[in-house]
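Lab notebook page, bench 4
Experiment: in silico fold of construct C2
Operator: M.H.
Input chain length: 422 residues
Purpose: comparison with the prior construct
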Amino acid sequence: MHFLKHELGIGWHHTRVLAEIEVAMLAPLPWRPSSINSAFYLGQVVAELHSHLRNITANLFEVGYLWLLDQENLTWGKMSELNSIELDSSETIQDIALKLVTEQLKNDSHLKVGPSERTIFVLGSKGAGKSTLINRFLDRDDVPRPTLALEYSFGRRTASGQGAQKNICNVWELGSLVNSNQLIEVPLRSHGLATFSAVIVLDLSLPDRLWTDLECVLNGLKQALEKNCSSKEIAEMQEAMRQKVGSDHVDLNTLEVLPFPVIIVGGKYDQFQNLDSEIKKHVCRCLRSIAHAIGAALIFYTSKNTALTKMTRDAMNYLGFGSPSNPFKTTAADHNGPIVIPFGADSWEKIGVTPSNSERIGLNYSSQIPQVGTEKVAIPDDPAKDGGFRERVIDELRALKDEELMRLLKDTEMRMKFEAVQ
């Protein structure tokens, strides 16, 4: 084992396989390459193993061979994990193999850079630019169309250093907040809390509806958590989010941090910047306060500003794929310009308010800017016939079924007439 760890100089995954084979043979291997510099040389190693281990059970060799070839992420010199395995000469080959595989599975989380699948839930004010935001994130040139209920799409990206492995980002969009309690539960129930994140898009051009929409979103997300996640899971994820805010943050004990990453996006900033200065001050104070209270990041956005568009897209890439690691290149808190507040970068003192919670923040904002009810969505009588929702394949199948139905109705009508004459 000492020979394997200090003289082969190969990736630790492959050392595990060689260690298993060496123990099975109860003798050191006859070759000692000083280093492995390429995948080609690794193939030569496998060939030598095949020649050297002719007398070993074919099934065992096949398992070790496939395992060796399957490891694409060569981590040079990372051998310390082998020390945790205690080998007993009385153990059978199957016992040793089982022990090595069990150890491999335990350390699997250290081999991956973030989860292979994540979920982003985009919800908020109607007509605030949610679909446009998603299209930019997914590099789609589709003309945005109204989202009636809940719409699903996904993005896929090859992770660097992981060969053909793909990282997938599930993207859900909620079209309207009206009667949406059950719909809000769907993404969380489908994918779980561990890889869940939310992007709350608000219409800055309508300050008299801003808190109504935001409160509806927050209440819906909290209810979905209570119904679909255990208290233990919520507590664990909440602690992880507290670490994201900062374990040494001066306000940490006064915050009601949500158990998943949240980015609040203030949409239509190009229209908001022309509003009265006092209104802008109240809106910015409200959004900074609620973002700070729940441990969220805050960014103002308009598709007409290249810098804000790129920063918002980077923020969604961070939630969906884990990169870039620092999507917020700057911090801006002046209400006369676009607000950009990264996770944990704000404080009650900087905002200029006393520690508060979401309920008091809403009451204070509503006293300054009275709120109206959530706008109801006019749903067409038959969305399938709406030109904005055309799907060629589905529409063609629907047309065939409509023709079959019409023929069936005509046949039934003629048969009834014939029977009546008789």
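Observations: The beta strands are 117-124, 150-158, 166-174, 196-203, 262-267, 297-300, 340-341. Residues 392-421 form the longest helix (30 residues).
Next step: discuss at group meeting.
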